[in-house]
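In response to reviewer comment 3 from the previous cycle, which asked for concrete evidence that the modeling workflow produces usable outputs, we include below a single protein chain processed end to end. The sequence was submitted unchanged, and the resulting structure tokens are shown without manual editing.
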Amino acid sequence: AVTARVRLVAGAVIAPLRHPLLAARELGTLDLLSGGRLVVLPTVSWHRDEYAALGVPFRERGALLDEHLEVWRLCWGPSPVSYHGRHYRFDDVFLEPGAFSERGPYLWLGGGAMSAKIVERVVRYGDGFNPLGVRTDEEMATLRGALVAACRDPEELELVGGTRGRFRDGTSCADLGEAMAGIPAQRAQGYSTFCIKPSQFIDDPDQVGEFCRDVVRRGEAL
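The workflow returned the following structure tokens.
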């Protein structure tokens, strides 16, 4: 509320564990309240027990996510909306007020591998690509080729990289410099945004401010 450029990133939202209408309502409200600065990273998770506890079929999680993305796109546009999928069905639903704009929140998409399904989701819905781990040059070329084939400009896709902390033992924090050493290679692939988790590198929440300043200094040096 007191910032003009800071984004609010909802990552990761395990979409299949919610109904898409409820998720669209909650995420759309956050997007409206933040003035269009919400970023959503929808995912499916690996945790089978979570699905079992809620009675959601684990093997259908990818198909459920696909229907979420379709429903969200509808709900963040003009009302009323109807949808008849394999998992979700509804008619003449109004979501008012909507998201900040009819395009809805920005969507980052990714996964642990560059599968054909992930490429399809990024091309169809993604404002950004945030993979788990580092993708090869060949995989990045595949993604760019798919964007071009869909008449999308690859330069307009935000590439979101990350760092992976390495812990020496069960009580020590990871070394920030070591984790950030992989950023230049990702920059060479076109990545411009990077996610760094403070809890991997510091234990004291009072140190978050200085930690963020340290990250910026190291980033500028790189």
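The first strand starts at residue 8 and ends at 14. We consider this sufficient to address the reviewer's concern, and the full set will be provided in the supplementary archive.
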